[in-house]
User: What shape does this take?
Amino acid sequence: MRRFRLIEPASLDEASHVLATDEEARVIAGGTALLVMMKLGVYIPSTLVNLLKLDGLREVTYSADGLRVGALASIHDVERHPAVLEHYPILASACHVVANIRIRNLATIGGNVAHADYQSDPPTALLALDASVELTGPGGRRDVPLDDFLIASYETAIQPGEILTAVRIPPPPPGAVGRYLKFTTRSSEDRPSVGVAVLARTANGTLDDLRVVVGAVSSRPIRIREAEAAARGSAPNAELIAAIARSAADAVDPIEDLRGSVDYKRRLTEVLTRRLLTECLEGAVQ
Assistant: This one.
């Protein structure tokens, strides 16, 4: 690993200034992903900007407007927070299956999202929850929908000098049922071959709200919007679930890697989506 300069800013403004004036500078918080990539030579930053000593970036708060998760909250903090467990169990379950407890205690939710690794669990669940990210930089603060923020693997819409300071999630639809399920080819701590998030709500015997997101397959999590729209207002049954699952498999653009071939991941997407939809709609399927 090459030598680098470590800066511990006293404020967000100072951190933003360093990032805006040094294009080779990188933010570091938990460091669970960045340090590995530095050791492998993927990133060779001249400067690391450590955010861990900044105040106000760890809080997780819930109100009528929804959930605000400070970027420095650890994955374990999010997983075990009472508001997340009560109102966003789909997010709690996605955080719970990230690596192992040692990693979850170090890795931050902001770092996880900003890193934009296509084989990460939380972004898939967050996309199903219509989450957005709060970015703070030289031009002030702006909120960006997560679907627009994640462009491709390791590529986001963050601008020079901007820092991801929080993840925001609106209140979940009342009565909605959400699940996250991933499949690994090796240990349970491994990155997923496929991860699927489903959020569904029924009313008067029909699908009132449906969100299906497939992660760890394409270069970013993919929301199956056409199938969602077509299914709304329909009575949930086995045929409809199978059709949505096939649509999910057709919509993804699998990346072939050590965790599976293109055909394997496409087939696995269909199986997991069908299984998860069946679980979420248990009791409502006609």
